[in-house]
Amino acid sequence: MKLFILISALAVFGVSWAEQLRYDNHTVYKVLIENENQLTIVKHLSTLPNGYNLWKPFHGVGSDAHIMVSPKMKSAFDSLMKLNDFGTEVLIENVQSLIDEESSSYKRDATFGWTSYHSLDTIYDWIDDIIAEYSNIVTPFVIGKSYEGREIRGIKISSKDGNPGIFIETNVHAREWITSATVTYFINQLLTSDRAELKNMRENIDWYIIPVYNVDGFVYSHEKDRMWRKSRQPVSGSNCMGADINRNFDSHWMENGGALSDPCAETFGGPKPFSEPEAQALADFVTNIQDKINIYLSFHSYGQYLLCPYGHSATELPTNYADLLEIGKAAADAISRPYGTKFTYGSTGSVLYVASGTSVDWMFNERNIKVGWTFEFRDKGRYGFVLPATHIKPNAEEAVEGVIALVEKSSALGYL
Fold first, then answer.
1. Which of 37, 62, 93 is the last residue of a domain?
2. Contact 348/310 with Cβ under 8 angstroms?
3. 67: which strand partners?
4. d(CA 295, CA 406)
5. Which ranges constitute the DSSP H helices of 145-195?
6. What is the CA radius of gyration of the chain?
7. Residues 221-266: pLDDT tens digits?
8. 253 and 353, same domain (yes or no)
9. Which residues in 35-157 belong to E strands, given as ranges?
10. I need a surface site. Which of 21, 124, 201, 392 has the fewest CB within 10 A?
């Protein structure tokens, strides 16, 4: 009966997709899930294309979800929460106010830097400058093209032959702008710093870095919809667009509820594994160089987590999990030193939620890259995906410390 009331309310108060391109008075709620009925309702909410947007996924009873609610849905949402005894907390009162503040930061950055966020073209122009300035050690590569025909570009930083390799991909989820901002800072530090640890990593490791992986979604998030997450490939038979590229890899694809089959869901795994050209391009590229890659890193936001395999199960753990926990602890401890920011570390499925078909798990399972980590950067929900530009440099500085510690511990354990 309660679920019927939910569906009826949604039908009455539904809004069109076009109205959501601005987020005036859209509110982000933290929703506690304390029983199976509540879990069923939140699962349903997370698949609706109009009026609701899932920011933080959930893993079952005892977890919580962060859900953005449009002003036209607030009355129905509030009634639904009260009717079903949900515990809720407002995290962000007005999402558009954060977006407006973020947009104003563009005016403060006359040249490329880390006091504002940048468009894909600006990032690619900066990459071109880096390639020209450091041509002795920096070379470009392209893993392929996106659905809309954009090149997915990367750089390789290599000082000599025979080095072990580390691969970093960022911005698979379009709205997570802090990830590309952080990786460009990391690239700059890696190339310019005289710090002993960074010089060692520059000289003795080959780095393969994709600063913006989901190029179509990233451009769309800048030009059309700040909250866009997925790819931009149409889905046959649906009015909803795109798939979650990080649920589209052929590793335990769609298992254990770790992705959703509804094209309108934020974690839609696609109609089949590797349906998204971006996922297929990355898999093909890494397959061709897999003997050169020792560590795989994927940069995400938000929540402040360090997540290793497995994602597809809450209970199954990799055979080298003890080593991975040592690496995770070292990285989390290092991240906390500059500003006291606390990261939780462990397997994706056990400490956060089940996520199947991810890039890190595919690299681990199918390409035998036995150190794989997902970084979930700042914050815990106060700003969520619209992290103010004032956080870029602090977040990036923490990330540099985390990567240094991760590399050092991985090396000590024999993975490099």
1. 93
2. yes
3. 29, 54
4. 10
5. 177-192
6. 21
7. 999 999 999 999 999 999 999 999 999 999 999 999 899 999 999 9
8. yes
9. 52-56, 64-69, 87-92, 138-145, 151-157
10. 21
How far is it, in rounded angstroms, from Cα 211 to Cα 180? 5
CATH number of the domain encompassing residue 27: 3.30.70.340
Q: Looking at the domain assignment, is residue 385 inside a domain?
A: yes
| Structural contact between residues 126 and 112, judged by C-beta atoms closer than 8 angstroms | yes
- Structural domain count, the chain: 2
User: Are the CB atoms for 317 and 310 separated by under 8 Å?
Assistant: yes
CATH number of the domain within which 218 lies? 3.40.630.10
How far is the C-alpha of 314 from the C-alpha of 212, rounded, in Å?
A: 29
Helix (H, G, I), strand (E, B) or coil at 104: helix
Helix (H) or strand (E) holding 152: strand 151-157
Q: What is the pLDDT of residues 285-332, one digit of tens each?
A: 999 999 999 999 999 999 999 999 999 999 999 999 999 999 999 999
- Asked if residue 121 and residue 39 are part of one domain, the reply reads no
CB atoms within 10 A of CB 300: 21
Q: Considering 59, 93, 127, which residue would you say is the last residue of a domain? A: 93
Distance CA 52, CA 21 (A): 13
Quote the mean pLDDT of the chain.
Answer: 93
Residue 100 within any structural domain of the chain = no
Instruction: Provide the CB-side half-sphere exposure for 192 (13 A, CA).
Output: 8
Q: Is the peptide bond before 302 cis (omega within 30 degrees of 0)?
A: yes
The DSSP secondary structure of 265-276, one letter per residue, reads: STTB--SSTT-S
Q: Which two tokens stand for residue 49?
A: 């294309």
What is the Cβ-side half-sphere exposure of residue 398, based on CA atoms within 13 angstroms? 26
Residue found by looking up tokens 């991985």 in the block = 410
Give the Å distances, CA to CA, from 71 to 52, 103, 190, 357, 411. 10, 22, 45, 34, 51
pLDDT digits (tens, 9 = 90+) for 342-366: 999 999 999 999 999 999 999 999 9
Residues 72 and 186 in one domain: no
The three-state secondary structure class of 375 is strand
Q: Residue 230: what are its φ and ψ, rounded to 5°?
A: -90, -170
What is the chain's length?
416
Close Cβ partners of 36 (under 8 Å, ≥ 6 residues apart): 61
- Cβ atoms of residues 214 and 208 within 8 Å: no
Those residues whose C-beta lies under 8 Å from the C-beta of residue 10, and which sit 6 or more positions away, are 48, 50, 51, 73, 76
Nearest to 269 by CA among 296, 286, 251: 251
Q: Which residues are catalytic?
A: 376
